[in-house]
Amino acid sequence: MEPDEWVEVTSLRDLERRRRRLVVVGGEQIGLFLVGGTVYALRDVCVHKGRSLAKGTILHGRVICPGHQWAFDPASGRPDGQEGCQPTYRVRVEDGAVYVDPRPRLPVGEGNR
Ligand code: FES
Fold first, then answer.
1. For ligand 1, is residue 105 a contact (CB within 6 Å)?
2. Whole-prediction pTM value?
3. pLDDT at residue 105, rounded to an integer
4. Which of 20, 24, 64, 96 is the one with CA 20 to 30 A from 12?
5. What radius of gyration do the chain's Cα atoms show?
6. Which pLDDT tens digit goes with each residue over 18-45?
7. Atom nearest to 47 CA in ligand 1
8. pLDDT classification of 110: cutoffs 50, 70, 90
């Protein structure tokens, strides 16, 4: 783990209690979500009309935007039945601490390996 890429943002215990939260890392507004025991990170500003995903809900394994209820796959950032893609970020959990790499990943099929 290269320390300049990973930023500690919260604890797993905190996410177990809240399920979702907004953090700001390197100028990026990042929504963290605990879904099915896994921590995911999505850009918090919705790709549709800019609402905060961290103010939404988690339902049936999807992150639901509070704006117009688009349902995002937290792993890929893809909304069910809609165009576009929410940028995602790499997440690591070590010793109860949650780390995020604030460099957004490219959507699947658009250049990431
Ligand atoms: S702003 Fe997110 S679904 Fe419309």
1. no
2. 0.90
3. 85
4. 64
5. 13
6. 999 999 998 889 999 999 999 999 999 9
7. 2
8. low
Which residues have a Cβ under 8 Å from the Cβ of 3 and sit 6 or more positions away?
Answer: none
13 lines ligand 1 (CB under 6 A): no
Residue 55 CB–ligand 1 contact under 6 Å: no
Atom of ligand 1 minimally distant from the CA of 69: 3
Task: Return all residues near 63 (Cβ < 8 A) that are at least 6 apart.
Answer: 20, 31, 33, 35, 40, 42, 53, 56, 57, 71, 72, 74
Number of the ligand 1 atom closest to the C-alpha atom of 53 = 2
Regarding the beta carbon of 46 and ligand 1, being less than 6 Å apart is answered yes
Q: Give, in degrees to the nearest 5, the angle at Cα 106 between 58 and 36.
A: 25
State both tokens at 101: 């790499």
Residue type, 68: H
Residue-range domain boundaries for the chain: 7-102
